[in-house]
Amino acid sequence: MKGHYSDVWQAVAASLPDRPAIVTRDETISYRRFAKEAGAFARHLQQSGVRPGDAVAILLYNRPEYLVALFACLATGIAPVPINYRYRAGEVAELLCDSDAAVLLFPTSLSEVATAAVEQAQTHPALVQVDDGGVPLAAATNYADIIAGGGVLPQTPPEGGELRLYTGGTTGRPKAVVWGAEDILDVQMYSIYGSAGLAYPETMADAVRIAADPETPRTATLPLAPFMHGTALFTSLNTLVLGGTVIIHASPRLDADEAVRLAIDERATRVIVAGDAVALPIAEAAERAGIDRLGIVNSIISSGMRFSDTTKARLHALGDIAIMDLLASTEGGPFAVNVTTSVADLPGRLHLLPGAVVLDENEQEVQGTVGASGILGFRGTLPKGYYGDEEKTRATFPEIGGVRHVVPGDWARVLDDGCVELLGRGSSVVNTGGEKVYPMEVEEALLSHPAVADAVVFGMPEPRYGELVTAVVVAAEGQRVVESELRAHLDALLAGYKKPKHILVRPSLDRSPHGKVDMTRLKNDVADELAAGASG
């Protein structure tokens, strides 16, 4: 079936107008209202001069307006660009410039960030604000006023539409991965239909028929990872293709106790987490409440984040829950999956998925050779590349044997039975609580303080978050590094999750003549020092 998400959503809205599309603690939004509000937002964008190919930056935490804006953009050929709502003004400004955003959609609680970001970016995007109790900006248009104006979505979206998702990892500074709107739905067909045992639709009418069929399993998805992360976003979009319901925990911070109650009260069937960073608090909250079954939840999905067997065991104790732990990236995949249905399936093993390959140093496939190691790749429907960066696109999306691949940088060892063992990233990216932190950016922030002459940033293992951002700094001559002052300096430059959890001061980093640091030795020394501090 060829088409866009927006095509299917409009068809579902026309066929099942009263079915709930989005649910929060405060309201239920039907498919009729979902389409109507998207039409109103699309009308506002078009009347404001935003054209197909332009970009709308979405600086929101999980809220209904997020999905409405995506619907409106995809239906009109305008590129939605999710931005991390935890970013500071300078970081937002960088992405406003990089994405060429014509509009910035933000909550009033982030008015100060939005104002400062626009001033720093000097790109002058139009401002649209969602009232969440913060101080409104006089220069911004109110989302509620836009929705009250009404509007109708075009029946057919323009060709060439895009969705741009920012990622860290191997790209260094954030880069937007550009997915063609025509390709996104095609990539997700297995996740939508195949994984549920449903026949693939051949036409739009088939898709609506499947959504309306009483025999189609009811899907109610509770994303507890932010929409700016691909897994939470795409799983939610896929839910709407099936005529299901997206249950939104509308808060910038996870309230695990409320999330557990929400899952039970709103009869969620599927929960999206970000590894232990989200799953562990959920398990703890359920245990605190004395809950032995997480309502009717039958699946939990995570991707790209450490998800320990001990946490999975605690979740399996909450009912007949299948846990899907995906190895994927914003750039493409998925590469492998570990599915467990009970404690008996633990420890989990990663199984390579169709289209995934393991490439040796000569770009030869070795996934059939037990014991071989190589870099993970994927061949299939892929994004166009990185927005405005042809060099990075060529490096991450190489043509191998005449076939375009994506190779984000994960290394793996081939085991038996089609399984692989993940060895880690070839780059130095730190994955903390599902967020990717690029060390160079943090090092630059540290080095901008006059008391710091040298710095290196890396991740140290930690059970819940996977890794903690850790920094080792060297004081400038005649200076003394005061940790509290250095942290205050970083407050203005970096999002909270990027700031080092540990800052250690050394007289020297013992760099080699080539400027390299012996990271293995340094990490061992830091581990010993942190352990000694914990025991002392």
Plain-language structure description:
By secondary structure, the chain is of the alpha/beta class. The chain has three domains: 5-253, 3-Layer(aba) Sandwich (Rossmann fold), CATH 3.40.50; 349-425, Luciferase, domain 3, CATH 2.30.38; 430-535, GMP Synthetase, Chain A, domain 3, CATH 3.30.300.30. It contains 17 helices and 28 strands. It has a 15-stranded mixed β-sheet that branches. Strands 4-3-5-6-7 form a five-stranded parallel β-sheet, sandwiched between helices. Helix 1 (5-15) crosses helix 9 (204-212) and helix 12 (276-288) packs parallel to helix 13. The chain is globular. The chain starts with a helix and ends with a helix.
The low-confidence parts are none
Number of strands: 28
The share of residues in helices is 25-40%
Strand content: 25-35%
Report the sheet with the most strands, covering strand number, pairing sense and barrel closure: 15 strands, mixed
Shape: globular
Treating each run of at least 4 consecutive H or I residues as one helix, how many helices? 17
The helix-and-strand class reads alpha/beta
Q: Supply Rg.
A: 23 Å
N→C terminal distance = 63 Å
Mean pLDDT: 92
What is the correct CATH architecture of the largest domain?
A: 3-Layer(aba) Sandwich
For the record, the count of structural domains works out to: 3
Q: Which topology of the largest domain does CATH recognise?
A: Rossmann fold
CATH class of the largest domain: Alpha Beta
